[in-house]
Amino acid sequence: MSAKKEELRIGFYVCHCGHNIAAMVDCAVVARYVETLPGVALSRDYKYMCSDPGQELIQQDIREHRLNRVVVASCSPLLHEHTFRGAVEAGGLNPFYFHMVNIREHDSWVHTDRGEATEKAKALARAAIQRVAHHKALEIKKVEIHPDVLVVGGGIAGIHAAMTLANAGKKVYLVEREPSIGGHMAKFDKTFPTLDCAACILTPKMSEVGSHPNITLWTYSEVTKVDGFVGNYTVQVKRKARYVNEDLCTGCQDCISHCVFKEPKFADDFNEGLGKRKPIFIPFPQATPQAVLIDPEVCLNFKRNKNPDGSPVVGDKCKKTCVEACGEKHAIDFTQKDTLQEVKVGSIIVCTGFKTYDAGRSPAYGYGNYKNVYTALEVERLVNASGPTGGEVILREGKNADGSPKTPKSIGIIHCVGSRDKKTNLWCSRVCCMYSMKLAHLLREHTGAEMYNFYIDMRTPGKGYEEFYNKLLEEGTHFIRGRVGEVTDWAMTPEEEGRLVIRVEDTLAGVVRRIPVDMVVLATGLEPQADAGEVRRLFNMSCGGDGWFLERHPKLAPVSTFTDGVFLAGCCQGPKDIPDTVAQAGAAAAEALVLIDKGYIEQEPNTAHILEDECSGCKSCIPLCPYTAILFDEGRKKAYINEALCKGCGTCVGSCPSASIVQNLFDDQEIFSEIEGVLAYD
Amino acid sequence: MKYAYFPGCSLKGTGRAYEESLLPVMKHLGVELQELDDWNCCGATAYMAVDEGKACAAAARNLAIAEKSGLQQILAPCSACYLVLNKTQHYLHEYPAMRQTVSRALATVGLRCDGSSAVRHPLDVLINDIGLEAVKQKITRPLKGLKVAPYYGCQIVRPYATFDDQSNPTTMDRLLETLGATVIKWPLKTKCCGGSLTGTLPEAGLRLSYILLKEAIKRGADVIATVCPLCQFNLDAYHPKIAAKWEPVPIPTVYFSQLMGLAFGLPADQVVLNRGMVPMKPLAAAMA
Asked: Among partner residues A364, A490, A492, which is closest to B167 by beta-carbon distance?
């Protein structure tokens, strides 16, 4: 102990949190017990410490009872540490003369014996009292925020977030993996419940993004590395070679029509493989940027082997009619390589979207086995005027007597494929009921077919959604309640011969039914992207058990993550429809704007520092730091810590062989006193 | 390769064609099967439904005898036996209370069961232990031109899919293709044969058998291959009744092991096609 210190005067407060704590912990008993501990000047229990009167109480006591330390036993510090530090500061003390004890999450909520829970609260309180005696006055440091923002993913969420920020005058880097922005929405024909054309409302926004002076749009690119911390991120982006110079290409597409492949031959991803494209292609008519690209896997001018760096070897076999057609523009460049680019940003909005459930994982529904079983996304392309059939709904299998392609006369739409199922995904994908009805409406409009929707529950909670359901009922769409057992082709009646039979228990009629149809549409649910795990690590986010990115608080911080400066929007956080996605994207942009306009962030002072006299310069701490915050002074042969980078994880503290690293708020005295406090209690 | 062999009641009775064909085939492949000494009822599916504890004890006695014999692998060709023995293993591992009940019962006859042995199906052993390459070596009469509908029934893939896919099993398909047969594609591989309903509720049970037979014929199959004595019985024994109610669906149903014997060129008394009730014309042609 150092020389004579000022007399300790600790104020202790135990919060009832309504019944949350008081029901399982006898708060008055805890308060009376703490009152007897050395250094405690006053001890109170109070119904809601976080309320204004509760905070006022602390301030008043500091003034009237000359308190110089404060301990509050209540909920998790995650919730209210900030609140109480504020109250302590307002009372005239350094905010770090405060310590918080969690007797809710760690005690009352997890125990069932009131006596023992009360004993535990007393032990935890005693530990805090012993600890707070050693607290020191600390200073909060401010770090400047870089005003540029990175938006990852160019679906409707990323587009909206980027536009919001750019219109507010901020510089945005929008990075999209695919050759064009637009995401899933660009593939849709109409949107529910208004049935307005998806392209008509999306493509103007896409081209605005493409031409906005504040947006740097990098498509066909992926974020490969993220360093730094809130306000000061350094991001590395891989820009994949498209073999076409985006700046020189005008999107005239002469190269495509002059390609040596006279007919499109290769499966077209944008059309879910229903259509074909050439080796040089543009994903869809309204693609942004309006620039073609070359698929080196199938282009004849590339050999099939790879260079040591992974890039394809350029051959010289092809006549290169595309280059000829491009002429003076010289946009085609077979020698293009993947490049890495680095940008500095202050905040990041992750909008990486979803993938649809692989219908092949539910073999009972026959996808991949029966050609006339489709996924909903395939049908979106089938009914789309710019789709592979020009909007004509024709079946993959079967021809009319005259040899013309067949149009379905009856269609079954199966809801909840891969959703609400213990064997696949437990969650409701939220959009399937609505898009299934939209497709029912569109398919009926295109074909006049008899429509059957097979559902477990109809979920239509949204503006105008229930009304849309009513509209479909009035249109004469059949709604059959029951999870479909199988889609099969074994027939029991002449009517069923040669058709697909949907077997289902109609739970309203209480009978098992067999419905013969010509076409089956599987309303596949939404799933996290296949590489969500890697993306999560890249941006240091968390995932829920279901794989969706985790928001900081499901109600009160829905677009924040546990990493400061990284925000979420759209389906990467969980299934949602377009209105919710756009709202969330706007919210994420607003959160980023808050950071930018404030200009700085306050840094928690729980950082580590090195006691220079004791550091032996062994460097063992340096490789251990996950934030590369520890550097080495070659002149003095000592390590030193960049406090702006230190996150206070404590790894270096634990590893230092000469115990010469000290962490604020977690020094040995503080920790050992706390442990003693718990153990001393009998 | 040596396995403990648990025949169960069917393979000594209605399903004797299964044993009579499987044993020579396994021997031909160099697999030694040692029939469990003093085995008893597997615990069968019906017993399970009445009293799980007693059914598990009955099954566990067989497992205990196998453990005592020192053979770690039990071959259980009958689907019902395979399922019940497997289920008992699962119960012993997952439910301490069941483990206690069973241990107490076994202790009264001086036996104990660790649940350490593996219950294996012949298809599993053929594909994963012996291998299709070894099977191929033994073929002297490929089943060329024979169109077979592979029918797995329910019990070897449900609820435990230990060696094959639950919805679309393929082990028998691969085996039959190796034998040179043409495998018919159909969506009814694991659909119910009628089970014991053919006896208790014939109007429901027979309808299910009828669907299988009719669809196999419709898809051009010459014969149905099965792995289960009850399936074989249902699909073979009720043809007059089915014909009277719906239409004649004359297609024979045999065990996969009979087709293997055929392809290996084993003598007629080891292929036992004479055991079936439905005439085996296409198979007889293959034998010729």
From this structure: A364
Q: Which domains does chain A have, with CATH numbers?
A: 10-140 (3.40.50), 148-182+194-236+342-353+529-601 (3.50.50.60), 254-337 (no CATH), 357-527 (3.50.50.60), 607-663 (3.30.70.20)
Whole-angstrom distance, CA of residue B51 vs CA of residue B47 = 6
Please state, in angstroms and rounded to a whole number, the distance separating the CA atoms of residues A533 and A540. 10
Beta carbons of B187 and A369 less than 8 Å apart: yes
Q: Is B269 helix (H, G, I), strand (E, B) or coil?
A: helix
pLDDT in tens, A482-504: 999 999 999 999 999 999 999 99
Between residues 351 and 380 of chain A, which touch chain B (CB distance below 8 Å)?
Answer: 363-364, 366, 369
What would the pLDDT profile of A330-346 be if each residue is shown by its tens digit? 999 999 999 999 999 99
Instruction: Name which of B135, B157, B117 is nearest B25 in CA terms.
Output: B135
Whether B187 and A489 lie within 8 Å, measured CB to CB: yes
Record: contact A364-B165, CB cut-off 8 A: no
B14 and B108, same domain (yes or no): yes
B131: in domain:
no
CA atoms within 13 A on the CB side of A508: 9
| Chain B positions in Cβ-Cβ contact with residue A360 (cut-off 8 Å) | none
The answer on B271 and B145 residing in a single domain is yes
Q: Would you state the torsion angle of the CA atoms of residues B118, B124, B130, B134, taken in this order, to the nearest 10 degrees?
A: 170
C-alpha count within 13 angstroms, C-beta hemisphere, residue B219: 22
A113-131: average pLDDT: 96
Query: What number of C-beta contacts closer than 8 Å exist between A and B?
Result: 16
Read off the CATH number of the domain in which B166 is found: 3.40.50.11810
Cis peptide before A516 (omega within 30 of 0): no
| Residue A414 contacts residue A365 (beta carbons within 8 Å) | yes
- Look up residue A513 and give its amino acid: R
- Cβ A490–B167 below 8 Å, yes or no? no
Give contacts of B211 with chain A, Cβ < 8 Å. Answer: 490, 492
**CB proximity list for B238: less than 8 A, separation 6 or greater:** B198, B206, B209
What tokens appear for A115 in the block?
């006596």
Residues of A in contact with B187 (CB under 8 A): 366, 369, 486, 488-490
Q: Which of A363, A488, A490 sits opposite B168 (nearest CB)?
A: A363
pLDDT for A240 beyond 80:
yes
Q: What's this model's pTM, rounded to 2 decimal places?
A: 0.83
In this structure, are residues A166 and A172 in contact, taking their beta carbons and an 8 Å threshold?
yes
Residues of B in contact with A488 (CB under 8 A): 187-188
CB atoms within 10 A of CB B246: 14
Tokens encoding A539? 């941006």
DSSP A105: T
Q: Is the pLDDT of residue A440 over 60?
A: yes
User: CA-CA distances (angstroms) from residue A126 to A12, A47, A78, A131?
Assistant: 10, 21, 21, 9
Bridging pattern class, strands A10-15 and A40-46: parallel
- What are A344's strand-pairing partners? A234
Residue spans of beta strands (DSSP E) within A460-565: 478-481, 484-488, 500-506, 511-517, 519-524, 526-528
Helix (H) or strand (E) holding A443, with range, is helix A432-447
Residues B109 and B20 placed together within one structural domain of the fold: yes
User: What whole-number distance in Å separates Cα of residue B196 and Cα of residue B213?
Assistant: 17
Same domain, B154 and B252: yes
Nearest CB to B167; choose among A363, A490, A492: A363
Residue A603 has pLDDT above 60, yes or no: yes
Report the complex ipTM.
0.81
Q: pLDDT tens, B204-259?
A: 999 999 999 999 999 999 999 999 999 999 999 999 999 999 999 999 999 999 99
Same domain, B81 and B211: no
